[in-house]
Amino acid sequence: MGKQSSEYFQEAKKLFPGGVNSPVRAFKAVGGQPLFIESGSGSRLRDVDGNTYIDYVLSWGPLVLGHAVDSVQSAVREAVNLGSSFGAPSPRELALGQELQRRLPFLEKMRFVNSGTEATMSAIRLARAVTGRENIIKFEGCYHGHSDSFLIGAGSGVASLGLADSAGLPAALIPETLVLPYNDSEAVKAIFQHHASEIAGVIVEAVAGNMGLIPADRAFLETIALLCEEHSSLFIVDEVMTGFRAAYGGACELYQLQPDLVCLGKVIGGGFPVAAFGGKACYMDQIAPLGPVYQAGTLSGNPIAMAAGLATLLGLGVNAFAEMEARTTRLCQGIQGLAKKYQLPVQVQWRGSMFSLFFADKPVQNFKDAQSANYEQFANFHQLLLTKGIYWAPSQYESNFLSLAHTDRDIEQTLQVIEEVFRKIGGRVWES
Ligand code: KE4
């Protein structure tokens, strides 16, 4: 931990709870203190003490092209010279919306918002309105942002801090969120058997990224889709993290899903506050001012953010995505090979350009598996990587990401560091 970062952190703790503006940044789950970042460039971060790191957090996913990429920077500069915000429709929101629809044809209509939280919160409000029902099904370890309905059995920072649920949730709301084990088709069938007429919608990360990376079983997703169809509940896929990450067309492409509603974020803003919810027009047309479901936002569709999002998507072509995916696979297979060499029980799980690592002796298929992974070992791994210039997500319950800016040299360098770390921690008597 550098001197300058430490000084900034002492000051920040006087201003912000825990010294941060989002809990996962506090490094609480892995020990140590957060680094204060000066700048980013390509695949690298530079902290305020001049240390550089190969960055696998990439602002928790948005920077799929890398940091400070010319095409995005120039699009933002051009837009900002014309004004920062109009509070009125602008051609730029149309351009990004049309690009999204071109890539995701099931997005018959959509609404831009400023965060994934807003997107998912709005999606379930819409589901409740169109069905006249109250209950929402989510899955243990999935994280859909911090609106009240979702802070029950949530992953990401909630799990990292060991909070079963958040404090401050209205008691009346808690029973409306039904939490089931991830990848458990039987549990989904059972709850629909007894409560189908009360279920407004089911929301799921088709590749879970907030308990570490856990891909859904295809049958699990098919069961959800079928039961929603059969009982007129809405099938909502949360692609805030997996959109344009788990596959070129997101997790919906990976699993050939046609959800009623989808939530997007992160990549579609290219590092600026952009998210969206959308899907079938028959549902989206219930959103004000057309329909009775109110949803709004001062900066929704902000022209600068729209420009950043569009430039990011235009920089992410099919071939570029395939190249990034191949590099991710090389990295993950390399780590798996090193774990084998040093006889460390490590599971590396990945899809597209997102990945995570568990200190566990069998594949991790749900939140309980993730919770039984060796967390102390993960914290040790994280700290050692950081001292050797690798910026890995500071929680077992997060995903890591690659960008188009990550080179083969970055991968080689990362594997060299991980080999040093595994050698250092390998060979120990394994306390599982
Ligand atoms: P935001 O409100 O943070 O923009 O998005 C919420 C959200 C919704 N759905 C999924 C699948 C998500 O992963 C997220 C946010 N992801 C976390 C990282 N796991 C954001 C990082 C943070 O909380 O600081």
Automatic annotation (TrEMBL):
Residues with PTM N6-(pyridoxal phosphate)lysine: 266
Alphabetical GO biological process terms: protoporphyrinogen IX biosynthetic process
Pathway connected to this protein: Porphyrin-containing compound metabolism; protoporphyrin-IX biosynthesis; 5-aminolevulinate from L-glutamyl-tRNA(Glu): step 2/2
A Pfam family hit: Aminotran_3
InterPro entries tied to this protein: 4pyrrol_synth_GluAld_NH2Trfase, Aminotrans_3, Aminotrans_3_PPA_site, PyrdxlP-dep_Trfase, PyrdxlP-dep_Trfase_major, PyrdxlP-dep_Trfase_small
Keywords: Cytoplasm, Isomerase, Porphyrin biosynthesis, Pyridoxal phosphate
Subcellular location: Cytoplasm
Listed EC numbers: 5.4.3.8
Reactions catalysed, as given in the entry: (S)-4-amino-5-oxopentanoate = 5-aminolevulinate
Top-level EC class as recorded in UniProt: isomerase
Cofactor: pyridoxal 5'-phosphate
Highest taxon above the source species: Bacteria
One MF annotation (Gene Ontology) recorded for this entry: glutamate-1-semialdehyde 2,1-aminomutase activity
GO cellular component entries: cytoplasm
Cross-referenced PANTHER family: GLUTAMATE-1-SEMIALDEHYDE 2,1-AMINOMUTASE, GLUTAMATE-1-SEMIALDEHYDE 2,1-AMINOMUTASE 1, CHLOROPLASTIC-RELATED
Subunit: Homodimer.
Family annotation (NCBIfam families): hemL, PRK00062.1
Family, similarity comment: Belongs to the class-III pyridoxal-phosphate-dependent aminotransferase family. HemL subfamily.
Protein name from the UniProt record: Glutamate-1-semialdehyde 2,1-aminomutase
Source organism of the structure: Streptococcus danieliae
